[in-house]
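[agent] plan:
  1. take the single chain provided in the ticket
  2. run structure prediction with default settings
  3. attach structure tokens to the ticket
  4. add a short note for the reviewer (M.T.)
[agent] executing step 1
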Amino acid sequence: MPEPLHLVKIPLLAAAFVKIAARRGYPLRELDDGYLAHCLLAELWQKNAPAPFHLKGAPLREDGARGRGVVDVWGYTAVSADHLANHARDFGDPTLLEAIDGGPTAISGKEMPRFEAGRRVGFLLRACPVVRTKSPRDPGRSREVDAFIAAWAKREGEPVERERVYVEWLRDRLKDKGVSVERLALAGFSRERLVRRTQGEQRAAKTLERPDARFEGDLRVDDADAFAALLRRGVGRHRAFGFGMLVLVPPGHGWS
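[agent] step 2 finished; step 3 output follows
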């Protein structure tokens, strides 16, 4: 029997969270909100931290490094909201719990239903459309590149449209995932500076610039188990940092 999948919502107090991050020496003006949220989620819940997740609400940081308001973390996890609340209450760092608006009992959620074959659903997705290509300096190694830039490099005189490249990038990642794409559109795009830590013993912060694309569309479920696995895994890279979550909405709905 497939592992249960839960959708949870965790309300974060932006001001409290930014204060905690500052105490711990995080370079607030350099880190993106997804990385900051990842740090809190991973420290509180380790392997059960919601991922992929999506941030809803005002940015964690406004007016420079000062955060205001509440930011909701929506995410998928294998455990229930009650499990997350109990674990945080029993084992969580008290200073981290201050960042949850209302404390651990304010965490809410539901077990996701099973979407049988033939069911139509809409989706919203924030994704990072990148591909792996060979490094020009070291052909034996690969690097992560904006899918549009990779397509432009291979254009051979043909025009390249960013929207078309990104839409095809997403279509490729939805192939053989238990769904048929009925509608797919790029709703927005920007380039964002992201901070990630390198691997190895000496982990250092590294700043990256990556595409930040918002998609919307409609899917028809062809395989219920494969679709559940798609929701659980997410789409594309940087899924633990606020990208890649398929947020389900009624068919025909979009970001606006």
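[agent] step 4 note for reviewer: The helical segments are 14-23, 33-45, 81-91, 94-97, 147-153, 162-174, 224-233.
[agent] ticket updated
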